[in-house]
User: Fold this.
Amino acid sequence: MNLQDRRHISALIGLLISFTACTATHRTRILTAVFDGVPSEKTPQADALVVAESNASDEVSLQVSELYARARAAPPGVRHKPFANRECLSCHESQFSEKLRADVTELCQLCHKSMFGPRSFPHAPVEAKHCLECHKPHESIEPALLAQSEREVCAKCHDQNRVLSTPAHTQIGNDACHGCHDSHGGQKKYFLKETVTVRAVAPTASS
Assistant:
């Protein structure tokens, strides 16, 4: 194979790569530049395809806009910093895509490494890296982006009647669980903290 043949093959490969990576409109322009007799992109079929591509982009943009509109209308609460700053690409592949750059637990660890540190008694959801079992990714009216009130989140796995009937809990009333327990795990059994801080929380239907 001579040099000229290799150049022709390289040019063809480059053309194929560009062709497969582009939109229909861009592909038409590439073909027109290389070949004669390519139908004009200004045909009903081409126009319809361009409109469809545009509508799809507009639809995703509308979804993003609606997400922020709901956030502005929601009661005051907590917003995840990347979400509040509209830094969508911190977690998502595109500003207009729900697809994440990586597994959700890998993304959480990029900023919250201390939550995954070694513990003698790790909490099961943390050990399994199921962050979204307890937290919301964008915003919440609850502290720490909890998906529900603290008692309700804990009650998903820990039966409240059984917990409150144990001797250690008979006097806690509406005190918050994290006043005594580290929700991500700890060095002591039952994730008990070195220092106990009791804080009252509003009662829930389950308590």
About this structure: Residues 52-191 form one domain. The radius of gyration is 27 Å. The longest strand covers residues 78-79. The mean pLDDT is 75.
